[in-house]
Amino acid sequence: MKKILFLLLFPTLVFSQDGAFRYFISFANKTNTEYSIDIPAQYLSVRTIAKRQKYGISIDSTDLPVSSIYIDHLKSEGFIVENKSRWFNGVVVSTFDSLLIQTLDQHFIDIVISFGSWQNTKKIGEKWQLNYNVSDYGNSYNQLQMLGGDVMHSKGFLGNGIIIAVIDAGFYKVNELNVFADLNKMMLDTYVFLDGNTIFYYD
Description:
About 20% of the residues lie in helices and about 20% in strands. The protein is an alpha+beta fold and about 200 residues long. The protein folds into 2 domains: about 5-30 and about 65-120, Alpha-Beta Plaits; about 130-203, no CATH class. It has a 5-stranded mixed beta sheet, covered by helices on one side. The longest helix is centred in the first third of the chain and has 10 residues, at about 45-55. It is globular and about 60 Å long. It starts with a strand and ends in a 17-residue tail after the last helix.
């Protein structure tokens, strides 16, 4: 293991606060992979490949999935692999053993970044009660205007055929509030980086 970096983050926005120690471990390479740059359909969607071709963006080694061999090594050492990033070529792992990372000595590891450990003891109560009955943009107009969304709409750009990825710390009661009813119908997929599930309607 070459070096360990310590990174200070806002835990409520990034990780589950269960007391576990979390690290990002980057790998030195992607050797021994079962995938090939010449067969991108194995690991990239049809839409992604079409977009690359349309804009002349080549497919390279950064698109290859993280080595499953390296991941299996970390699991055998006792780490829980929570998330993977092919473009950063690494994984986020967790453990309740604060000394386990010190015993890790594999040739394929480049850098280890420590996120520390947090324990959440805060009790979260009822956040708010909303009863929206608005037309047009309603309370969102101010922010929409700042971003130029009203101008785009006036020119006919309404987002038809466009897929948008939204990253946030959670979407409280989006599945219950009437104001988000149309939004729920348009969702294609969801993913929670904390635990890998698809339920994100909590705080």
